[in-house]
Amino acid sequence: MQSNNTQPLKTSTLWAISLSVFMFPFMISAVNIALPAIQADFSVDAVLLSWTATAYLLASGVVLVPAGKLGDIYGRKRIFTIGIAIFTVFTVGTAFVPSIYWIIIFRILQGVGAAMSMATSMAIISDVFPVKERGKAMGVVVACVYIGYSFGPFAGGWLTSFLGWRGVFLVNAPFGMLALYLSVVKIKKEWASAENERFDIIGSVLYGVSLVCLMFGFTSLPAASGIWLLCLGIAGGAAFVYYVRKTRFPVIDTSLFCSNRTFTFSSIAALINYSATYAVAFLLSLYLQYIKGMTPQVAGIVLVSQPLVQAVFSPFAGKFSDKTNPAIIASSGMGLTALGLLLLVFLNGETSLLYIIVSLLVLGLGFALFSSPNMNAIMSSVEKKLYGVASGTVATMRLLGQVISMAIVTFLFSLIIGNKEIALENYDAFLRSINILFIIYTVSCLVGIYFSLTRGTMKRV
After folding, report:
1. Mean of all residue pLDDT scores within the chain
2. What Rg value do the Cα atoms of the chain yield, rounded?
3. Judgement on whether residues 13 and 144 belong to the same structural domain of the protein
4. In terms of domains, do 221 and 73 share one?
5. Is residue 59 within 8 Å of 108, Cβ to Cβ?
6. CA dihedral over 351, 355, 357, 361, signed as positive or negative
7. What are 244-296's pLDDT values in tens digits?
8. Which residue range(s) make up the domain with 333?
9. Whole-prediction pTM value?
10. Is-contact 62 212, C-beta < 8 A?
């Protein structure tokens, strides 16, 4: 039984991690709102502008798993704290840059810092909170992610209107400083369960290059360059697996996927869930503005219903997963997510606003029931020395899922709409595209239910 003396550590840890995971999605959604202002300020084309988001995504993806391993070797709190510091410094610094190229460079560094913190955050939660409290704590953290996504568009729009796009980056300073203070001063313990191991530099490079090729390949489809990049990514992935199986201290132990069914199937379920849901807000934002004629502000108010439901119910789902099999709760959530996506298959020009909101509420509840219990299942299925790698792996699954989700959108739009702007003359093609997309996402979620249900009996570590 744990002493009451651990309560201040739990509180400080939960606050520090909750602040950090709030900042990252907040910045993503707030910066998206500020993009037109950035474009107007620097007079850049859409492709270069898109790199302000892509650079962050790529850097995060490359660093996540290696950062988790660094945390296992050199201390999870140390890597988490360095990540917060990097993210805060370069986020605030972006407010003072003179060109779009400096924004892209600083966004890369923000992605590195965010990845270091994300890769170690759930590992630290697993270190600090005992099994019977872990799901509840994870639910609070997941809720903060959704609060960040919900609050970002409102704050981003307001800050851009009154302070300009630079204000969006400046506002993170107090959050970052408070998270740093809590991490440095209040979290007085360190966790390094693999301190006798060496860091796998070669494996990390192979992993990073393969992931970059895969991510670029997905987003470049159906062009020939996308196919070539995917082939290179797959070949690099095979070389990575071969290498890490031969090395003594791999950046990630691939045998974990072979020997731990719960970890493997839960990770696959997470990948499928994110790949089926990430593009929903993007698609509905276009639908509400083009088909329904809503302003961006009104469309944002409609769309916020989903992350708000997720924020409200995630802590309860996490707490419930401490008392019962997380696989059952997560599978129920995946089923509700599939139902919400199925409802959106029937969108047309006459669909009522109430129908759309109900669909979003079902989606939000489904994702709330899935996310924190699934994370609890993953972190509870591995040994302590693998917490960092497991946390980084799940974060990578989330990132890959997001990339795949948007890659499917890009692929379908290019096939059905082509290289045209969305306009009145091709609204029918646009609606046909999103109907097909929601069919694909619904079917993939149904497949995800299989992996979630058959992940095996939970063995809490």
Report:
1. 83
2. 21
3. yes
4. no
5. yes
6. negative
7. 888 888 877 777 777 788 888 888 998 999 889 888 877 887 788 788 887 76
8. 252-461
9. 0.76
10. yes
